[in-house]
Amino acid sequence: MNNKGFTLIELVVVIVILGILAVTAAPRFLNLQENARKSSLQGLKGAMEGAAGITYGKAAVENQERSSAAVDVAGIETRWGFPTASSAGIEAAVTGLDSNDWVLSHEGQSNDDTAYTVVTFYDADKEGDTSAITDTGCYVRYDQAQGTEINQVASATVFDDNC
Predict the structure, then answer these.
(1) Lower CB count within 10 Å: N or C terminus of the chain?
(2) 3-state class (DSSP) for residue 6
(3) Can you tell me where the transmembrane regions are (predicted)?
(4) pLDDT of 50-82, one tens digit each?
């Protein structure tokens, strides 16, 4: 008799091998979401820094880069030539920051009275609540410029300890 097919032992061996592969490969796939969040925050930081640099260049062309008062440069509110930490400043400068992908707060003030914006992934419960955003441990902070010295210009910082 000429039977074609797999024996029970062959099928069990294949299932065991697939199980071993699944156990070793699953942790790598589960970590992809964390890496994607961290990469998105790095991309947002780059977009903020790029927008701030372009805005500063435009302010310099218009001879507005030394003004400590709020100045409109190409529809973007600036201080010291960089976008302010407000909806009229950095949010207007970065394309897509006002979309449903991100949740922002412009209310933060640090100890030295420096205005800042914090941004994280969209969650309606955190809208405008700085402490709720920072409590996530997965956000970008934009500090507006305090002057024209190298340690006073606008900066963006990624916090990704808990993504």
Answers:
(1) N
(2) coil
(3) 6-30
(4) 999 999 999 999 999 998 889 999 999 999 999
